[in-house]
Write a structure and sequence with these properties.
With 108 residues, this protein is mainly alpha-helical. The chain is built from two helices and no strands.
């Protein structure tokens, strides 16, 4: 029992460590962006576009947890063997209507 509690404590500690690391990193990116905004307001000239801030490049990775361009799933690229057979046939039936226009309700 002691081993399970120790493993659970270690796992919980690792999870909270990652959660707080992400939160503090995002807060650092936010404060860095605010510092750029305040610096741009105090100066009449803006920084040339060919000069990049190293911290901005580092914090750019924190913009999202998962890259949206990394995962792309296309149904056309899957072989036919992987597609379930249930999707091969389509059954069309007349929809059940409990009433008809200008008629009393009925049950089936």
């Amino acid at each position: 029992m002691l081993v399970k509690v120790r493993a659970m404590r270690h796992s919980l500690f690792a999870r909270f460590l990652l959660i707080f690391a992400l939160l503090f990193a995002q807060m650092g990116g936010l404060t860095h962006g605010i510092s750029h905004t305040l610096a741009d307001q105090s100066q009449d000239q803006s920084v040339p576009h060919d000069k990049l801030c190293d911290l901005c490049a580092a914090y750019a990775q924190l913009g999202s947890a998962l890259g949206s361009h990394a995962f792309a799933f296309f149904a056309d690229e899957q072989p036919a063997a992987l597609i379930p057979r249930a999707f091969d046939t389509f059954h069309t039936t007349a929809p059940f209507s409990a009433y008809a226009s200008r008629a009393p309700p009925y049950s089936a």
